[in-house]
Design brief:
alpha/beta; Endonuclease III, domain 1; Nucleotidyltransferase, domain 5; 3 domains; four-stranded mixed beta sheet; three-stranded antiparallel beta sheet; 17 helices; nucleic acid binding
Amino acid sequence: MSACERNYSQTDKEALAILVGVKKLHNYLYGRPFEIRTDHRPLLEILGREQKTPDVLSPRMLRWSIVFSAYNYHLIYVSGKDIGNADGLSRLPLPTADITVPHMEEVLMLESAPEPLLDVRMKKETKKDPVLSRLLHYLWFGWPQTVPDDLKQFQKLKAELSVYRNCILLGSRVVIPSEGRKTILETLHSTHPGVVKMKVLAKSYVWWPGITKDIEKFVARCEPCQEVARNPPRENVHPWEYTKDPWSRIHIDHAGPIEGQLFLIVVDSYSKYLEVRPVASTAAEQTIKRNLIRHVKIAPYHPASNGQAKRMVQTTKQALMKQRGGDWSTKIARFLLRQHTTPSATAGVSPAELLMGRKLKTCLNKLHPDRRPGKLEENTSPSDRLKKINQSSLEIIPIMDQSGFQQ
């Protein structure tokens, strides 16, 4: 079939197959009646001589029907499973007997151990072992009323212990004497599996008191395993202690550069109150020394130690990059106002409430009729209000002196 014919519909392909066959046998069929058997039922309505040519027919099928009209044929439908002539190999298979090919046994690998692990050796070592020899005696003649301390761990498992051909078994696992344990560990670790794989393999064959710890120590001391092992497991995380007062501990980091600008990120550990300031450099030694700040450094290559600042760095970067229009001071002011007034998911209140003891007013406060700013007292003059502000400032100054800040 040509590339164009391969794109025909199934009905066109079936009609094309009949057309090719009729043309090939033209010298034998022309002028003689013959039958055409097909398993495609729609062709009966299109090419059947007893049927009228459909009014709606593709030009291709119409041309073929004209060609077929020159022959005296009878089109018959036969189910595909009953037509064996077209594809005898698949439709009319010969019955075959099932032949079972015998499995070929092959030796994949021959390996000899330096010290063969035989039950004969285990018997001898068990009789020589000072602990297992007594355990063997107790299993034969019964347990005494008072059991030595080194055999109490076996007494707890006496229901599962048994003796078979002078070998002590725990269930179906062989209890290994002390002299043969190193050989067993080397055999279990011959291909350098991990601790879990060794434990699973050992659980199927051998046992002795403390086998789990012995396997862990053996793998930990294996140099090839440690050379290709992953990074050592992380130690238990010691979280920062909760602070009881605002600004008693702050987390500091630098963000940027964002469009060539560096930013200093300061987070209050108590209230999560955030301050962002543009800076020219990251140098801070003189500032820390001048303000008597105790500088605590985090672990190297472990940013999670300063997680509060790192998280705020990410939040600040995203917020500043999302804003369109305005200078840095405008963008920072908008972002900080939103951060200070948004309640925290853990505390349930905003950072401003934890720090100042009150909510900051925003444009959203004007939506509620009960939260509109109240009227000033009628008898309060501007000079009286100024005196109250000055009095509040005088109360704050002594507190700042005690904290070590310069006036």
